[in-house]
Design goal:
By secondary structure, the protein is mainly alpha-helical. It is 69% helix and 0% strand.
């Protein structure tokens, strides 16, 4: 059995949480995830780009969903920064969508906490 909490923490830890306002970006992404879903969140992160680290959040998600320990993985040719890939890989099946949504939520929460810890250390 795979510890998904570990995977979320691992990839959240690889995101540069020292980027100014990344905590706000993670919070906004989390709100969009809850209110509008995975696809809307990816569209928002992609539209924002590198403004406040949104591209790093997407890059980390991509690595998370391609991890060999994941019980569900993206097809190797598919990527989180391509909205159509997210739509086709994560939202077509309800079971997969709820699994992915919970995992993304954990990942974003860890980014927020890591960013807060980074601010306090500075």
């Amino acid at each position: 059995m795979v510890n998904l909490d570990y995977l979320a923490a691992k990839y959240a830890g690889e995101v540069d949480t020292g980027i100014e306002r990344i905590e706000n970006s993670a919070t906004s992404a989390l709100n969009i995830l809850h209110e509008q879903g995975i696809y809307a969140m990816v569209l928002w992160l992609r539209e924002k780009g590198a403004k406040n680290g949104e591209d790093k959040i997407l890059e980390g998600l991509d690595h998370l969903f391609h991890d060999p320990m994941m019980p569900f993985r993206f097809n190797r040719e598919k990527h989180m920064n391509k909205p159509a890939d997210v739509r086709d890989q994560l939202t077509m099946n309800l079971k997969t969508m709820f699994f992915a949504k919970n995992l993304i939520e954990l990942y974003l929460i860890y980014i927020r906490h890591l960013a807060k810890a980074e601010i306090k250390e500075a």
